[in-house]
Amino acid sequence: MMTSVDTELLRVLGDPLRLRIVTLLAREMLCTTHLVEETGARQTNLSNHLRVLREAGVVETEPCGRFTYYKLRPDVIASIAGQFAELAESARTAAENKRACP
Question: How far is residue 66's CA from residue 62's CA, in Å, rounded to a whole number?
Fold first, then answer.
């Protein structure tokens, strides 16, 4: 039974702008220009966040002419969701377990 969550992935997704990017990419593939329009972030800031998401394996790129499109990797999101589901299940059974005080 797993009782911990991937802390590196949580750190990556814990940033509000990165979470917004992930939420947008859950709906459709977008290029940097689209993401700038949707988030209002500066292109350089957005590119840095996209690099972090790529390095963490959360998004993949797909070249399209002079643009680069980004797409979310649903398996990574499903993995962390599964980790949280296991944690929740552990918490349900923990209510039945009580360690005695010395």
Answer: 11
